[in-house]
């Protein structure tokens, strides 16, 4: 029989998570979701707080505009870690130039494509075939024949389908 509490003599006395704990957990979820380390995440938070607008939304926009995330959203990678690997192995070009940094931030108007020499990559081809049923976000325009896409605009908060409470991350870093 499974118990609804942790093992040991003190398992039933587990205290409720503090406000700090819930904020920390929210930040850690986003870090792991996007595959970003603490130092880089803090840098993104600084960028977001220096931009005009709501800091939490700015942070999510920055995270969504990472090249590895864009590759994932386009369906060229089955998961974010696989998309990161596709980028770091030099399979992607932005505006005709090879980019192998997963943290590269794309801007509206950028052209993201699989490099000509890598278009026969079986992993990418398989992902595109499987990803045909997965919808491409409205802020991206995919040309699946040429394995290229265009970034139309910056993503809006409503288009980010993650269960994020970005205000908790802002509160965490504002201490």
Class by helix and strand content? Answer: alpha+beta
Low-confidence stretches: none
- Secondary-structure element pattern, one letter each: HHHHHEEEHEEH
What is the percent of helical residues? 40-55%
Main beta-sheet annotation:
5 strands, antiparallel
Arrangement of strands in the largest sheet = 2-1-3-5-4
Rounded Rg: 19 Å
Mean pLDDT: 89
Outline, from the CA principal axes?
Answer: globular
Number of strands: 5
Percent in strands? 5-15%
Question: Can you give a write-up of this model?
Answer:
The protein has 175 residues and is of the alpha+beta class. It contains seven helices and five strands. The chain has helices at 19-34, 38-50, 55-64, 67-74, 80-88, 122-131, 166-173, and strands at 92-94, 97-98, 111-114, 140-143, 148-151. Strands 2-1-3-5-4 form a five-stranded antiparallel sheet, with helices on one face. Helix 2 crosses helix 3 (55-64) and helix 3 packs across helix 7. The model has no long low-confidence stretch (mean pLDDT 89).
């Amino acid at each position: 029989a499974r118990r609804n509490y942790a093992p040991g003599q003190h398992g039933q006395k587990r205290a409720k998570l503090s406000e700090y704990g819930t904020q920390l957990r929210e930040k850690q979820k986003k870090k792991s979701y996007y595959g970003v380390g603490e130092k880089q995440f803090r840098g993104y938070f600084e960028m977001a707080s220096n931009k005009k607008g709501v800091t939490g939304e700015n942070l999510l926009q920055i995270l969504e505009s990472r090249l590895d995330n864009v590759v994932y959203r386009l369906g060229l990678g089955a998961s974010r870690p696989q998309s990161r690997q596709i980028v770091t192995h030099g399979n992607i070009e932005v505006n005709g130039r090879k980019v192998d940094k997963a943290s590269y931030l794309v801007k509206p108007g950028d052209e993201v494509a699989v490099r000509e020499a890598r278009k026969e990559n079986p992993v990418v081809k398989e992902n595109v075939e499987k990803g045909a049923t997965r919808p491409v976000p409205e802020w991206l325009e995919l040309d699946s024949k040429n394995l290229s896409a265009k970034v139309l605009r910056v993503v809006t908060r409503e288009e980010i389908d993650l269960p994020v409470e970005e205000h908790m991350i802002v509160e965490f870093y504002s201490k």
